[in-house]
Inverse folding.
C-alpha cells in the first residue's frame, strides 16, 4: 500500500505544479485582503468534487474584516470508513505585498527550471497545493482509512491571523475533541520539522516635545532629537544586551537564536504631505514615533522584555531635561514549542526518514505563524509546521518553490496520513 501511494504521488507531480500556479494567479495580497472569497471558492469547488464536505467561514467582527475586504476561510473535511483521529492540514491563502525588484510577473505563476515562480509560491501556496494533492491521493488510494482528514485555507496569517486561524480556533474548529493532529505546510525545507516559534512584542514608542517656529527652534523642544537619543541608547546598551541572549530552542537561521529587535518604522513632526513636492511646515516637531518589533526567546518573560525597554527610556530621560515619552502595546505573542515526541511530530519524522533516507532536522521559526492560535486559543498542542520551500525566499522578489520539493513533501504528508489513519495505522 505504501509503495502504491508513493507511486501515485509521483504521478501527480505535474498536478501539484499546476495547482500551485493556479493559486499564485489569484492575487490574495494582504493588506488589504484581496480575492479571499475567490481562492476559497476555487479550492472548495475542487475538494467538493472529490467528496469533501466544504464550509466557508467569514470572520465577521475581526479587526480587518469589512464588506469591501471580507475575511473568508475555507474548511474541507472527508470522513473515513470508521472511527479515528482527525488530521488537519492548515495553510494560509494570503500573501504579502509584491514589493520591488521582480524580474518575472509576481502573479504569473511562471514555471521555469523546475520551479514555480510568483508571490506566495514559497509562502505558502506551494505547501497548500502539496497538501491538497497529498490528501486527495491518500483518499483515493486508501478509501478504507479511519478517522477524518481536513484541509483549511485561512486568512490573514501575514498580519497576525485574527481573521483566520484565531477566529476559527475561537469558534471551536481546532478544539482537541474535534481535531487531534495539525500540520501547517509553511516553507521550512522538506527535511525539517518546525516545532514552534519565538515570541514577539510589537510596540510604539513616542517621544514628546513642544512645537515652535522652525526659525527659532530654541523656543521649542524637538521630539526628533529626543528620539535620536533613544536610538543612540538602543545602539549602546539594548542591542548588545539582546545579542548576548541565546536560546535552547533550535531556531533557524542561527542569528535568530539570540533575541532581536527591529525598528519597523519612524515618523516625526506633522503628517507627511500627500504631494511629495509640497514643503514640510516650518515647525519644531512635537511628536516622534517608532514602531519596534522585539522577538524574544522561550527563556524570557514578556514582562521582563517590556521592562528592558522601559528601563532604557528612563536612562535616556535621566540625562535629557524635559524628556517625556509613552510606550504603547500593539500586539504580543508568547513563544511556542511542541515536543519532538508529540504524535504528529513522530509520524512526520518517520515519513521523512522513509522518503528522504535521512532523519529530520528539528527547527523553530524565527517569526510567528498560526501555530500560536492553535496552541493558545485552540488548546491543541499536537501541531507542527512541515512543508516545501526555502524559508529565506519568503517575502523576497522572484519568490519560487521547487516542484520536486513539493512532490517529496506531498509524499511525506501522504505517508504521515497512512501512518496515523491507515487501516493498520496508529489512530485511536
Amino acid at each position: 500500500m505504501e509503495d502504491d501511494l508513493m507511486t501515485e504521488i509521483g504521478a501527480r507531480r505535474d498536478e501539484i505544479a499546476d495547482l500551485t500556479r493556479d493559486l499564485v494567479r489569484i492575487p490574495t495580497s494582504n493588506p488589504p485582503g484581496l480575492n479571499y472569497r475567490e481562492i476559497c471558492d476555487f479550492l472548495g469547488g475542487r475538494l467538493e468534487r472529490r467528496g469533501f464536505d466544504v464550509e466557508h467561514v467569514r470572520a465577521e467582527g475581526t479587526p480587518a474584516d469589512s464588506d469591501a475586504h471580507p475575511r473568508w476561510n475555507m474548511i474541507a473535511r472527508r470522513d473515513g470508513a470508521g472511527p479515528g483521529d482527525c488530521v488537519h492540514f492548515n495553510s494560509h491563502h494570503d500573501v504579502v505585498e509584491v514589493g520591488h525588484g521582480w524580474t518575472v510577473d509576481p502573479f504569473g505563476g511562471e514555471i521555469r527550471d523546475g520551479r514555480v515562480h510568483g508571490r506566495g509560491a514559497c509562502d505558502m501556496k506551494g505547501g497548500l497545493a502539496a497538501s491538497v494533492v497529498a490528501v486527495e491521493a491518500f483518499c483515493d488510494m486508501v478509501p478504507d482509512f479511519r478517522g477524518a482528514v481536513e484541509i483549511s485555507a485561512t486568512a490573514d496569517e501575514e498580519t497576525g491571523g485574527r481573521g483566520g486561524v484565531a477566529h476559527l480556533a475561537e469558534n471551536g474548529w481546532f478544539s482537541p475533541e474535534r481535531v487531534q493532529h495539525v500540520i501547517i505546510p509553511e516553507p521550512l525545507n522538506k527535511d525539517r520539522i518546525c516545532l514552534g516559534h519565538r515570541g514577539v512584542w510589537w510596540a510604539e514608542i513616542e517621544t514628546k516635545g513642544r512645537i515652535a517656529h522652525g526659525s527659532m527652534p530654541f523656543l521649542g523642544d524637538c521630539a526628533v532629537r529626543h528620539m535620536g537619543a533613544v536610538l543612540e541608547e538602543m545602539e549602546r546598551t539594548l542591542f548588545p544586551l539582546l545579542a548576548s541572549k541565546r536560546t535552547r530552542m533550535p531556531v533557524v537561521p542561527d542569528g535568530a537564536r539570540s533575541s532581536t529587535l527591529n525598528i519597523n518604522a519612524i515618523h516625526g513632526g506633522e503628517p507627511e504631505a500627500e504631494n511629495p513636492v509640497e514643503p514640510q511646515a516650518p515647525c519644531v516637531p512635537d511628536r516622534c514615533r517608532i514602531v519596534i518589533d522585539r522577538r524574544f526567546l522561550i527563556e524570557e518573560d514578556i514582562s521582563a522584555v517590556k521592562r528592558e525597554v522601559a528601563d532604557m527610556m528612563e536612562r535616556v530621560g535621566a540625562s535629557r531635561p524635559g524628556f517625556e515619552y509613552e510606550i504603547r502595546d500593539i500586539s504580543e505573542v508568547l513563544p511556542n514549542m511542541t515536543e519532538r515526541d508529540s504524535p504528529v511530530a513522530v509520524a512526520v519524522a518517520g515519513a521523512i526518514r522513509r522518503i528522504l533516507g535521512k532523519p529530520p532536522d528539528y527547527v523553530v521559526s524565527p517569526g510567528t505563524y498560526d501555530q500560536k492560535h492553535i496552541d493558545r486559543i485552540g488548546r491543541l498542542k499536537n501541531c507542527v509546521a512541515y512543508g516545501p520551500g526555502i524559508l529565506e525566499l519568503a517575502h523576497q522578489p522572484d519568490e519560487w518553490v521547487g516542484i520536486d520539493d513539493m512532490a517529496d513533501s506531498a509524499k511525506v504528508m501522504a505517508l504521515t496520513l497512512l501512518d496515523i489513519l491507515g487501516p493498520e495505522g496508529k489512530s485511536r
Remarks:
- The chain has a mean pLDDT of 96.
- The radius of gyration is 24 Å.
- The chain has two domains: 2-197+335-421, 199-333.
- Residues 355 and 408 are 7 Å apart (CA to CA).
